[in-house]
Write a structure and sequence with these properties.
about 150 residues; alpha/beta; Rossmann fold; five-stranded parallel β-sheet
Length: about 150
């Protein structure tokens, strides 16, 4: 088995992903590897609709990116990951492309992603995890994300 030197946790920063983050942190500690955390914002127009009204002189993309960076640093802090290793990328295209590009640019040798359960019409679309797993330039660890229905 190879020793990983740089592990990338690709996450949406949700509470469900905290368990995946802890898993990635333990792996990084086990291999004495660097751990980076990446969140890709690929649907900014949709996301803006849920945000509070911003003053007209604010760059919305910059504001939204900074908000995502702050949230990701909080997420990283909850699971004991260095906030300096968090990255947010804004992309007009699919998230999987940014994850794969980041992995190539930063010599990542293991990508950790979560697998969500899919139901209904979601079963017919390919998701980010599938695309990353099939196109990554390195190993990919898919960690199952449990979703609990109340």
């Amino acid at each position: 088995m190879c020793a990983y030197k740089h592990i990338l946790l690709a996450t949406d920063g949700s509470a469900e992903h905290e368990a995946i983050g802890e898993h990635a942190r333990h792996l990084a500690q086990s291999f004495d590897a660097r751990l980076s955390v990446l969140r890709v914002l690929d649907h900014l127009a949709f996301e803006f609709s849920a945000d509070p009204m911003l003053p007209g002189d604010v760059d919305k993309i910059e504001w939204f990116t900074q908000s995502a960076q702050d949230a990701l640093q909080t997420f990283a802090g909850h699971i004991g990951i260095d906030a300096a290793q968090t990255h947010v990328r804004v992309s007009p295209g699919p998230a999987q492309r940014e994850i794969i590009d980041f992995a190539r640019e930063h010599n990542v040798d293991l990508i950790v992603v979560g697998a969500h359960e899919r139901h209904g019409l979601a079963l017919f679309r390919e998701d980010t995890m599938d695309k990353v797993a099939h196109n990554a330039p390195c190993d990919v660890l898919v960690v199952h994300v449990e979703t609990r229905v109340a």
